[in-house]
Design a protein that fits this description.
With 91 residues, the chain is of the alpha+beta class. It has one domain. The protein contains two helices and five strands; from the N terminus they run E-E-E-H-E-E-H. The chain starts with a strand and ends with a helix.
């Protein structure tokens, strides 16, 4: 994950994929069909945690493609669900 490149029109295009952390996970919205799937994925990440009240879910539109290109292109962004385990509630 992190920064990378892919072939473009005669050049290398810089890309980005957000890195998961122990208590923060990024799930591409395109991989989720139903809201319940988000909680299922959270249970996969943190199986020993009762999730209600402990996991916050946010949506972020992250610039993931053509990072050095000057013009704003909506297709250069990826929508992610960001799951964060709230350790203050969990303890």
């Amino acid at each position: 994950m992190g920064y990378g490149t892919r072939p473009g029109n005669g050049c290398q295009i810089q890309t980005f994929t957000p890195d998961d952390e122990e208590y923060v996970k990024y799930i591409p919205a395109s991989s989720i069909d139903l809201v319940g799937d988000i909680m299922d994925r959270a249970r996969e990440f943190w199986p020993d945690v009762g999730l209600e009240g402990y996991v916050s879910i946010e949506v972020e539109n992250i610039h993931t493609d053509c990072l050095t290109y000057d013009l704003h292109e909506p297709s250069d962004y990826t929508l992610y669900y960001v799951l964060t385990l709230d350790l203050n509630c969990y303890r």
